[in-house]
Design a protein that fits this description.
Length: about 60
Amino acid sequence: MVNVFAAAGLAIGGYLLVRAVRREMGRIEKKVSRVARKTPDGQPIKTLERDPETGRYRPKD
């Protein structure tokens, strides 16, 4: 009977640990994504568009 309680306790503990790790991973992913969308000087990254005459990419105004 003790084995059943131990197995149930381990299963519940493992489930709670997985939930906590997934929540933390989501929080970190949001933080990294928010920082990655900005340039080092804090300005948002500009979208580039191709200039048909020269074939070069330039920031879209």
